[in-house]
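Sharing a chain and its predicted structure for anyone who wants a worked example. Both blocks are below, sequence first, tokens second.
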Amino acid sequence: MQIANLENLNRRFTAQAGPFRVLEYQSDLSNSPQTAQMAYFMAQMGVHRRQLVIDLNHTAVVIQAGAMQWMSGQVKVGTGIKGVGDLLGKAIRGAVTKEAAVKPEYQGQGLLVLEPTYKYIILEDLASWGPAGVTLEDGMFYACEAGVKQRLTARKTLSSAAFGGEGLFNLSLVGSGVAALESNVPRDELIEVTLHNDELKIDGNLALCWSTNLEFTVERSTRSLIGSAMSGEGLVNVYRGSGKVLISPVTPTSSLWSATNSEAAKAAAKNSNTLGH
């Protein structure tokens, strides 16, 4: 099988790790007069469509449910469920992490292309996060190699669950392999802090992912209530131990990106109807 025009002057691969490649559109060319203005300004501001292209060479990957756009070659699709107990565990994990309960597993030899997204796709080598793996902010999981284990990580303290803004449970990825994450902020703007038996304090839920072995608590910014009130900081998220944390320089507001994707979807549908006539 031969596939032509996957990459061209307007579409190019910008990142690669393991079986994953990120295909980025420089601008949206499939436009009508009604959508051209929005597409032009989106391109000028760096708002690009991106797709995850997965080269399956007798390997297996797990992706977010409903993310597949097309595939070619000898590729088999499975659920990865190993009995009723495994299904129940995945259902519980999906309910508390806002992820799909069952994520499809693709294996074989061929090409798998996922749906376009306006979010940034970050490729992370899990070996760099240590044996305990990495814990993700809700909704960041996009795909990973099938050898990577997905686990629930519960908050170690009540304060972190109640005031940390991260929820009671988070999805953790453990093992060797590469994971593809969806982020509202590009990798180039994320600040990477490596702790060596130290502590990191963050005002708000700016941490996108962190080493699972780190101790996460929520504390006052100063030792006294009066001091916290005077400093204007109040409660801060505290990470202690040895590991890494990826910090966003701005609040990764999901509602803004939901609106962007919604408007883009409406424009695409309108454009399709216009071109159809």
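Comments welcome. The longest helix spans residues 254-276.
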